[in-house]
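Retro notes, item 3 of 5
We never archived the inputs for the adenosine-5'-diphosphate complex last cycle. Fixing that now. Sequence and ligand:
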Amino acid sequence: MSIALEVKDLHVSVEDQQILKGVNITINQGEVHALMGPNGSGKSTLAYTLAGHPFYEPTAGEVIFGGEDLLDLDADERSRAGMFLAFQYPVAIPGVTVANFLRQSINARRKAEDADDKGITIPDFRRLLKAKMAEFNVDQKFAGRYLNDGFSGGEKKRAEILQMAVLEPKMAIMDETDSGLDIDALKIVSDGANRLKESLNLGMLVITHYQRLLNYIKPDYVHVMLDGRIVESGGPELALELEAKGYDWVREKHSQAEAA
Amino acid sequence: MFTKEAVEKLSAHLGEPDWMLQKRLEAFALWEGMNLPTTSEEAWRRTSLRRFKLDKITPSLNGGGSQEMPSRVSSQLTETPAGGEIVQVDGDTLSYSISDELKEQGVIYCDMSTAVNEHPELVQKYFMTDAVTADEGFFAALHGAFWRGGSFLYVPKNVQMAAPVHTSTWNASGATFSHTLVVIEQGAEAVFSDEFGSETGKGQFMHNGAVELIVGDNASLTYVSIQEFGDNMFQFTHERGRVGRDGKLDWIMSIMGTGLMKAFQTMELDQPGGWGRMSGLFFGDKRQHFDLDTQQNHNAPNTVSDLLYKGAMKHQARSVWQGMIKAKKEAQKTDGFQANRNLLLESSARADSIPGLEIEADDVACTHASTVGKVDEEELFYLMSRGIPRELALRIIVQGFFDPIMQRIPFEGVQQRIAEQVIEKVGSLVE
Ligand SMILES: Nc1ncnc2c1ncn2[C@@H]1O[C@H](COP(=O)(O)OP(=O)(O)O)[C@@H](O)[C@H]1O
Ligand SMILES: [Mg+2]
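Structure as it came back at the time:
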């Protein structure tokens, strides 16, 4: 089983404030890791840092992805290397249609591989997009809408899955993909993610603080983040325990450990 | 020099009838009593003409520009072949065509000087009488005295023009004074694209133009202007549309060129049921300075005006948009909207956005919105996180910003041309 992503002792600051304080996690291709933890513990910070958001500054540690040090790459290079972040709050890009955006994303990949590439032809692209939209339950009308502009919560999350399907990453980070979704939308989105995991042999990091999502996307491992560190790791049963008992016991256990 | 003798010489050179000479001389007399605007006048407060040397500019007496023009100037911009085309250099017509179909419809489309000689009754009725008048200001008066070239479109009652017409005006020698006059009679429909350009040359160039758009009752006009002058151009233009009862004027403009431009653009909704839309797209770089003064005048009840101007600025470029919606006392049940959105690509660029309302009627819906903002880093990151390099992401965002205006341009060829200009302007911003 090959390693998709290896995070070693990662420290990250935001505006000189230390948020991640030594994160370690290894994700293999085809594995689903859930990352749980209370609000503000640093889960999104880890997600953004891995995706290369310039606001988050790694101050120590390393991240190996596809044999390279990921932290040396810009966000666009990371994406082209196979990293995908499904945003908790996808950003609206007014005036840019979903179709135009996806075509540019595909072409950026092709161009990076071959500077002379002329890009995907319009008919090929149309065919591809149509097939992916059908497969992932996205209305064909989406193609002509401005990206995430005026999308409902569910539409945004479905659009993220559609993008993942088109870009075919090796590693996907899903940041609170379940937030703001009703049960039907949650099923559709989870179903899409599961299918992509199978077909692409994806490594996945699923960030959530609800067990609910993990009923649909079944994790192989569950980690708990607290105050910028992963403090507990276990199997799926850990998520059930958190659901039943909340985070207080984790907090207690580790504040005691810190105090000791 | 701009003298009375020069006015007489120009009029004689063009073989004009006496009434036009007299009209020019009236404008000249007005102009003689005016001074070059200074920043102490409200309309010019944000645009200084300190660097502009009018005494280095001469009237366009003989035309006689070189015949060298980029091929794109006269290139086909519309998908359906244009029903008529005029290409002018320095006011002289270089090529002219009008389809038999338009002729059979009774459409008149010709250069402005030809119209003066061949259609005096129409020109006397509409030329600088009701839309743009010489007393509006220094440059309106100067234009009235020294106008040269431009085109005239007349669409008779109830005629739906079979194809659009397209005029290209090229400035080669340094001074152009083109005049566009469009008259759409009751129930008629037309689409007109008007293009202005020059190469960046040595010294100061001037374009002192006027645009008059007269839309009759139940008539409809789509007027698209595309400006791509060189950076040494000073452009001063007075433009006014008048809309009759239940008439429609869809006015779209793209502004890319000039070193300094000052435009007065006014929409007059004169009769009940009139509808007017003004859509502007501008992109300044280097030290370009655009000053757009717009007015939406509701002079009758049940009229609708809708203005959207979107500008991007980079380097040291600066834009000023000053917009006013006026509703007269009798203009009840009118809707007036205006929005000016500005995108600054660099913090050295500047955009001033000054909306205004003067409402005398009490039953109206008028709103205005103006924003000046930078490119959103979160938008850039989102696009980059999908593999799109930063410069391309920036271009996509800027193109998206302009998209709502682009969608209003009825020709794919014009859209493409403008898109290329946008790409070129964004292009040099590689950090
Ligand atoms: N963009 C930001 N600006 C300022 N503080 C931030 C920013 N992003 C995260 N933080 C801070 O980092 C900590 C971790 O936040 P976050 O990673 O969003 O947690 P989680 O996703 O686990 O809820 C919080 O204290 C938060 O206030
Ligand atoms: Mg979060």
